[in-house]
Amino acid sequence: MIIGKKLREQREQKDFLLRQLAAELKVDTAYISKIEQGKKNIYKVNPQELITIWLANQILEIVKKEDVAIEALNIASNNL
Description:
Blueprint: H1 2-13, H2 18-25, H3 29-36, H4 47-63, H5 69-78
Helix pairs in contact: 2-3
């Protein structure tokens, strides 16, 4: 599962151990591990929906300080 892989990459980039994350979230280490391995679905949310939200957030981070952000997004949308 792409989401689990991305979550693991993010955790490792921040040098956060699995047990640290589990303690922070107050869940079992095995639960986090299963999510990262794609064996457990997060909140029973469609993975495609999570990917879409993540991508939207990435786009927002890139264009949020641009004066012409809405216009650029409209052009991009019309060219899909």
